[in-house]
Amino acid sequence: KRIVVLISGNGSNLQALIDGVEAGNIPGKIVRVISSSEKAYGLERARNHGIATDVLTLAGVKRQGLSRDDYNLKLADLVRANEPDLVVLAGFMLILSPEFVDAFSRKLINLHPALPGDIEGAHAIDRAYEEFLAGKRDHTGVMVHHVVAQVDRGEPILSEKVMIQKGDTLEDLENRIHAVEHLLLPKAVTKLLESNL
Ligand code: GRF
C-alpha cells in the first residue's frame, strides 16, 4: 500500500510512521513526503531514509501570480501522481480546499491534538492548557480522523484521552501529547491499511 505524507514542520509524526514502516509494523510504504515549507525538518528526516520529497509553498505559488485555489490544485496533482492508497496530514498546517478534500475523500486522514468535537483548529494544546490553568478542564487528547471540509471535524478513526496533571508546564503537556501521537498515528494508519481502503 502506498502512503503519501504531508508535513509543514518538525515531522516527528512522520518519523513515527517511518519507524513503523521500517519495523514492519505498518503494512505499507511511504512513497513521498510533501512539505508546505522548505524549512521543515521533516524533509531531512525523509531524505535520511531515502524517501523522495517535494516542497510546495503557498508563498511560491503566489509569487507566480497564482491563487490559493491554484495551490490546492497543484498539491492535488502532486499527491495524485504518487497514486496513494492513503494520504496522511501529519502536522500539515494549511487548510485544504473542499475540492482537495473531495478528491481524496476516504483516503485522507489528519492528526489533531484534541479529542473529537472538543478543540478545533490551531493551537489546540495551548488552548487546552489555558483552560486547565483557569480550572476549566483536567484533560485533553489526541485523535486521528478522516478529513472533511470542516476543520478537525471528520469521523474519528482512533482517539485517546490525555490527562493534564497538577504542576504540568505547557511543555510537559506538549511532550505527553506528542508521545501519544507517535503511538496513535501509526496505529491508525495500520488499521486503515488493513481494512479495505
Ligand atoms: C502535532 O502536534 C499534530 O497533532 C499537529 O501538528 C503537530 C505536528 O508535529 N497537527 P510534527 O511536525 O509531527 O512533529
Oligomeric state of the chains in view: single chain
Radius of gyration, taken over Cα atoms and rounded to an integer in Å: 17 Å
Q: Report the major sheet.
A: 7 strands, mixed
Q: What is the averaged pLDDT score?
A: 96
Number of strands: 7
Structure annotation, total helices: 7
Helix/strand-derived class?
alpha/beta
| Poorly predicted regions | none
Order of helix and strand elements from N to C terminus: EHEHEHHEHEHEEH
* Binned strand content: 15-25%
What binds here, in terms of ligands, is: 5-O-phosphono-beta-D-ribofuranosylamine
Query: Which strand order does the major sheet show?
Result: 3-2-1-4-5-6-7
**Cα distance spanning the termini:** 10 Å
Q: Which outline best applies?
A: globular
- Measured as a percent range, the helix fraction is 40-55%
Description:
By secondary structure, this protein is an alpha/beta fold. Helices cover 41% and strands 21% of the residues. A 7-stranded mixed β-sheet has the order 3-2-1-4-5-6-7. Helix 1 crosses helix 7 (170-194). The mean pLDDT is 96. Residues 7, 9-14, 42, 90-91, 111-113, 181 line the site of 5-O-phosphono-beta-D-ribofuranosylamine.
